[in-house]
Design brief:
The chain has 172 residues and is mainly beta. Helix content is 10%, strand content 45%. It is built from one helix and twelve strands; from the N terminus they run H-E-E-E-E-E-E-E-E-E-E-E-E. The termini are far apart.
Length: 172
């Protein structure tokens, strides 16, 4: 009876990590989180080299998209786009932007300038099936050793979030 109890206890202790709610956003002084969540799919205006990411580049967007679902629960569905809109009170050249995927040993990383009083979006889109990973994702930015912001998202099975989509053509 004891081995079964231990096995059941092990499953119970492992389960909360996959089912945990995301932490509240964390911000450094002078950095504001203007918005977060799921945004409408937008066409890229080009790419920027980002060799420390799985694709080796990031897509550039034409502006700051509007968040259509302000939530940290993200459906595991191709075409879903989610992220954060931040604004700083000072210029931060060469900020290290990181996206941590569940279970990853290291973050997807690129470097970008943050300009004072200029809203800027950082996000991720599920463009390929292999990118869809259930669990807690974390988007952060750093100025040297100083964390500027950290926002977690919980990617859940799409069936748990019916009707939540990044395709604004389907919204009524």
């Amino acid at each position: 009876m004891v081995p079964v109890f231990r096995l059941a206890l092990a499953f119970c202790l492992a389960a909360p990590a996959a089912l945990a709610d995301p932490s509240a956003p964390a911000l450094s002084p002078g950095v504001q989180l203007l918005d977060y969540g799921i945004y409408c799919v937008t066409e890229s205006t080009g790419t920027q080299a980002a060799p420390e990411t799985s694709l080796g580049y990031i897509d550039m967007l034409p502006g700051v998209p509007e968040m259509i679902y302000r939530q940290q629960a993200i459906p595991a569905r191709l075409g879903t786009s989610f992220g954060v809109v931040i604004q700083a009170d000072r210029d931060i050249p060469g900020a290290r932007v990181e996206t941590w995927k569940p279970g990853a040993a290291r973050a997807e990383t690129w470097y970008d300038d943050i300009f004072a009083d200029n809203p800027q979006m950082r996000g991720f889109a599920f463009d390929y099936p292999e990118e869809i990973i259930l669990g807690t994702w974390r988007m952060e930015a750093w100025d040297g050793d100083t964390r500027l912001y950290s926002v977690e998202f919980e990617v859940r099975p799409a069936a748990e979030l019916p009707g939540v989509t990044s395709d604004c053509n389907l919204l009524s």
